[in-house]
Specification:
The structure holds 2 protein chains of 2 kinds. By secondary structure, chain A is of the alpha/beta class. Chain A folds into 2 domains: 24-53, no CATH class; 58-323, Rossmann fold. Chain A contains 11 helices and 12 strands. Chain A is globular. By secondary structure, chain B is of the alpha/beta class. Chain B has one domain: P-loop containing nucleotide triphosphate hydrolases (Rossmann fold, 3-Layer(aba) Sandwich), CATH 3.40.50. In chain B, strands 5-6-2-7-1-8-9-12 form an 8-stranded mixed β-sheet, sandwiched between helices. In chain B, strands 3-4 form a two-stranded antiparallel sheet. Chain B has a two-stranded antiparallel ribbon with strand order 10-11. In chain B, helix 6 (172-187) links the parallel strand 8 and strand 9. In chain B, helix 2 (32-46) packs across helix 10 (271-295) and helix 4 (114-127) runs parallel beside helix 5 (146-154). The radius of gyration of chain B is 18 Å and the shape is globular. The chains are: A alpha/beta, B alpha/beta. At the A-B interface, helix 5, helix 6, helix 7 and helix 9 of A face helix 4, helix 5, helix 6 and helix 8 of B. Chain A: ATP binds at residues 78-85. Chain A: It comes from Hohenbuehelia grisea.
């Protein structure tokens, strides 16, 4: 008996150009520009020369653009959903609370940009000027750039493979008119892949001041963070410290504290001891943090009396201390 | 042309699998891996002969080995390809494959760009000796990028077997990413079996008060709005978190072989197990029409 197969094709919508011939191997294929089908295609030359050679021509431009940025800080975590974007936003708001401090956020989570929502600027669009793309300003001294500002609708998926993501990250660094910044915070997607490597490579010459690693207390998250630490050491990024997020929960009804994500293996404290990395602090889980993020308001301003606010502010002070500011 | 051969290698391997369920979510940390693990455990427990596989394509942050209590195991090579690690020991009905089995040291990072990830996924699909499976559950990383595109590309010859389950948490920030993920399934014509809302409420152990730690109801609303079947909501279950977290390090299981079976016994005692059983029965009902086509 022969099983019938309807081989529905799954086109990679972004890898085959609209004007490509029928058997186009896709621009990301090894055969791009070299396959038989490519003869006579208008894109043949571009595809054939696609293989990267020598240093990226964007590098000097990035270095020039970044020369007016004093501190570049990465917010990393191997695991998703531990609060990277929320932390980045709080950190930026805290820096920008001082009128004299110019702060920027670059959101390189291309497939799942959360920064625009968390900062309450989700419906903005990027504008181009003669000096480059203008960041979106949350307030006078807090500029943001994210792929979220470039999509026609927030429903649209960004189905991009690595090279396209790298291209956009390079544009974020060289084409965005960041101006003079005291701090540029880079919010990253989970994992240790294209986005991370690209940011590190593009900023190698300008220098990264350090990375803040975010984790939650349970082992499943910690093991991803261990991988991220290994990544930082491999590529030579200084780790400013570790933040344990969602650390304990205070019931709004009975004020009893419980652990939602139990630190079965000692949590971030143990990890910090084992790896010799400083534990910057632990932020308790407060449902109002998530709510503030959904509404795009600053948690620190809205709930100054929450224990989580105190924890955030202590961590931020410690980061400033470490940086020597 | 070389590409054609690869596809047949993948399709030959996957032809002995009845259903392939891809667990997706645009957002990270919403519980894809824990849902995948629970889905596999429930499908496994649903029948004494069910054979289930679980493939973890989260290459830079594999969590499945830890959750199924097989952290630290190594993959063996046989003449017929890689042998999956069996979480239920000698019974050999719950196979598991992850990049976590391939790295030497568990703290080692896998720093790979797209093309390398693509190659690894192709190998996972073409070189793993799954044998006859009723279900293959695929756990994915967050986003809609290389891993997802590669998966669908390589599995295009067995496309009719594919379906997806989307996991979300209730807050708006997560739902936005999940919406993108849904757009992805539409762009790629991947049938969606339904939406699961995870981390929906937390029961305070001291007073029993339910707190909506990450808001509530967002997933259900979205499912209605988008015309998706809503499979159910799962509250934050600390027992489950602890169980999946300490699966391998737990003090109780001394023998490596029976330890994982014990995982199932212990899992079935958690409050989530009961809720999840219902989710799985809805889900398999949604799958049923495909099966009848398949068996013809």
């Amino acid at each position: 008996m022969i099983a019938t197969q309807t081989a529905s094709s799954v086109p990679d919508p972004l890898s085959v150009p609209a004007n490509a011939p029928e058997h186009c191997p896709g621009t990301e294929s090894q055969l791009a520009g070299k396959a038989e089908a490519c003869d006579g295609c208008a894109n043949q030359e571009t595809c054939a020369s696609n293989t990267p050679k020598g240093p990226d021509p964007a590098l000097p431009l990035i270095t020039a653009r970044m020369s007016t940025v004093k501190r570049k800080i990465l917010v990393l975590s191997g695991k998703g959903g531990v609060g990277k974007s929320t932390f980045t936003a709080q950190l930026a708001w805290a820096f920008a609370a001082d009128d004299q401090t110019q702060t920027g956020i670059m959101d390189v989570d291309i497939c799942g940009p959360s920064i625009p929502t968390i900062l309450g600027i989700a419906s903005e669009q990027v504008h181009a000027s003669s000096s480059g793309w203008s960041p979106i300003y949350v307030q006078d001294n807090l500029g943001v750039m994210s792929v979220g500002f470039m999509l026609p609708s927030s429903r649209d998926a960004v189905m991009w493979r690595g090279p396209k993501k790298n291209g956009l990250i390079s544009q974020f660094l060289k084409d965005v008119d960041w101006g003079d910044l005291d701090y540029l915070l880079v919010d990253t997607p989970p994992g240790t892949s294209d986005e991370h490597l690209s940011v590190v490579q593009y900023l190698k010459e300008s220098g990264i001041d350090g990375a803040v690693l975010i984790t939650t207390p349970q082992e499943v998250a910690l093991q991803d963070v261990r991988r991220e630490i290994d990544f930082c050491r491999k590529v030579g990024i200084k780790i400013l410290g570790l933040v344990e997020n969602m650390s304990g929960f205070v019931c709004p009804n009975c004020k009893g504290e419980s652990q939602i994500f139990k630190p079965t293996t000692g949590g971030a404290k143990k990890l910090a001891e084992d790896t010799g990395i400083e534990l910057l602090g632990a932020v308790p889980l407060d449902p109002r943090i998530g709510k503030s993020a959904d509404y795009g308001v600053s948690f620190l301003d809205e709930y100054p009396d929450s224990p989580a606010t105190t924890a955030y502010l202590d961590i931020i002070d410690r980061i400033k201390d470490i940086l020597g500011d | 042309m070389a590409n054609d051969q690869e596809t047949t290698a993948v399709s030959r391997r996957l032809n002995s699998i009845k259903h392939i369920i891809i667990v997706l979510s645009g957002k990270g940390g919403v519980g894809k891996s824990s849902v995948s693990a629970q889905l596999a455990l429930n499908l496994y427990a649903a029948s004494p002969t069910a054979r289930v596989g679980i493939l973890d394509v989260d290459l830079t942050g594999p969590s499945i080995p830890r959750m199924l209590g097989v952290d630290g195991h190594a993959v063996h090579q046989s003449s017929d390809g890689w042998v999956p690690v069996y979480a239920d020991g000698a019974q050999g009905r719950l196979g598991c494959m992850s990049v976590g089995f391939l790295v030497k040291n568990k703290g080692d990072s896998v720093v790979w760009r797209g093309p390398k990830k693509n190659g690894m996924i192709r190998q996972f699909l073409s070189d793993v000796r799954w044998g006859d499976l009723d279900y293959l559950v695929i756990d994915t990383p967050p986003g809609t990028s290389d891993e997802h595109l590669s998966l669908l590309e390589h599995m295009s010859p067995v496309y009719p077997k594919l379906s997806a389950v989307i996991v979300t948490t209730p807050q708006a920030v997560a739902l936005m990413d999940v919406m993108k993920c849904l757009s992805f399934t539409r762009a790629t014509n991947l049938p969606v079996l339904g939406l699961i809302e995870n981390m929906s409420g937390y029961v305070c152990p001291c007073c029993g008060e339910v707190s909506n730690v990450f808001s509530t109801g967002g997933g259900k609303d979205m499912a209605e709005r988008e015309g998706l079947p809503f499979l159910g909501s799962l509250p934050v279950d600390t027992e489950l978190v602890t169980l999946l977290d300490a699966a391998s390090g737990g003090g109780e299981d001394s023998t490596g072989g029976s330890g994982a079976f014990e995982l199932l016994v212990r899992y079935e005692k958690t409050p989530s197990a009961k809720l999840f059983r219902e989710i799985v029965s809805t889900l398999t009902r949604n799958l049923a029409p495909d099966q009848s086509i398949d068996s013809k």
